[in-house]
Inverse folding.
């Protein structure tokens, strides 16, 4: 299968009247891994949430197409059904729903009625992925994310990713809070997803993650726009030199310097 294409075109997003995204353009195709980096507060999570249909975000201009279909016209559950997945920077705790029940319902929500995954196959598949991600099996029986440590929540997002097998995934800071071994385990999980029918947008602050998950392209977001794109070398340069040179190149002065942005 050729895989899906996600096209973000001139996306403008406001939160409570403040424009956060000011015209984002980005295309992710099946088989491609893209990374987005950028300083705090530049709109990376806003981009992820707006694509997934979070109600706080007003889309004022632009479009997001999945294989030519307008994602912004879809209900939130339709977006997941169409093959989009968001691994969240701050996953929510859901009391009363076990991780295992949540995962099984999510898988079945993607399937046609009458074609639900059998309990036995689900458990087999879940156990396999739990092993692979080095997650304690008891965790699946706990309420979703409730009391999970920061790193456990992140691993749990990757567990969902690997079981749901979306066409296009946006992973928002899946590396934050992970210890070194967990980082490798999570990277292994994401790498295992690599195929022509899977495209991925990885939001991260740290080049280190990209040593384990090699991106095809690296994009830098500043002040609500993608201002630079390049190969993995771009991430290395950011690690060494920070963002100042890019702010200057993009004509954005540092806020701390007291000059207008
Ligand atoms: N509900 C809200 N009300 C007002 N401002 C908001 C709201 N949500 C987000 N913002 C603002 O939007 C901007 C972009 O936030 P966003 O979370 O997208 O940044 P980010 O690039 O993901 O940052 P980080 O790297 O710290 O995760 C920030 O200045 C943030 O304060
Ligand atoms: Mg963020």
């Amino acid at each position: 299968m050729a895989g899906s294409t996600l096209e973000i075109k001139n996306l403008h997003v406001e939160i409570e009247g403040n424009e956060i995204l000011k015209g984002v353009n980005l295309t992710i195709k099946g088989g491609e891994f893209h990374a987005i980096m950028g300083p705090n507060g530049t709109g990376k999570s806003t981009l992820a949430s707006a694509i997934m249909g979070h109600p706080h975000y007003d889309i004022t201009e632009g479009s997001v197409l999945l294989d030519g279909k307008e994602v912004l016209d879809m209900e939130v559950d339709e977006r997941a059904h169409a093959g989009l997945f968001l691994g969240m920077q701050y996953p929510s705790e859901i009391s009363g729903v076990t991780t295992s029940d949540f995962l099984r319902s999510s898988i079945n929500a993607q399937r046609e009625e009458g074609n639900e995954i059998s309990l036995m196959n689900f458990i087999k598949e879940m156990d396999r992925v739990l092993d692979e991600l080095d997650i304690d099996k008891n965790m699946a029986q706990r309420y979703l994310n409730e009391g999970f440590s920061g790193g456990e929540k992140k691993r749990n997002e990757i567990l969902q990713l690997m079981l749901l097998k979306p066409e296009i995934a946006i992973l928002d800071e899946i590396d934050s809070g992970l210890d070194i071994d967990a980082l490798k385990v999570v990277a292994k999980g994401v790498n295992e997803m690599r195929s022509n029918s899977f495209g991925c947008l990885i939001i991260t602050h740290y080049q280190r993650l990209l040593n384990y998950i090699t991106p095809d392209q690296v994009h830098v977001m500043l002040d609500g726009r993608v201002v630079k794109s390049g190969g993995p070398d771009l991430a290395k340069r950011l690690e060494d030199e920070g963002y100042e040179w890019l702010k200057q190149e993009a004509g954005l002065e540092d806020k701390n310097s007291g000059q207008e942005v």
